[in-house]
Design brief:
By secondary structure, the protein is mainly α. It has a single domain, classed as Up-down Bundle (F1FO ATP Synthase), CATH 1.20.20.10. Helices cover about 90% and strands about 0% of the residues. The protein has two helices and no strands. α1 runs antiparallel to α2.
């Protein structure tokens, strides 16, 4: 019973941070593009890179959850 709770807790907490980070990144990226459309390609490249790093944290949480479940 406790391992199921631990897996759910790890995935819940591990998904909140990256979800908020991706939302903030996209929001601020679109705001920056709206203010300076000439720099859209540079802003978009950095935004996508930041999203990839935030998503990697969610994948780490998934790996920890799977380790808790199967070990």
């Amino acid at each position: 019973m406790t391992t199921e709770f631990a897996v759910a807790f790890v995935m819940g907490v591990g998904s909140i941070g990256p979800g908020l980070a991706i939302g903030m990144l996209v929001s601020k990226g679109l705001e920056a593009i709206g203010r300076n459309p000439e720099a859209a390609s540079k802003i978009q490249t950095n935004m996508i890179l930041g999203i990839a790093f935030a998503e990697a944290i969610a994948i780490y949480a998934l790996v920890v959850a799977l380790i808790l479940k199967f070990v």
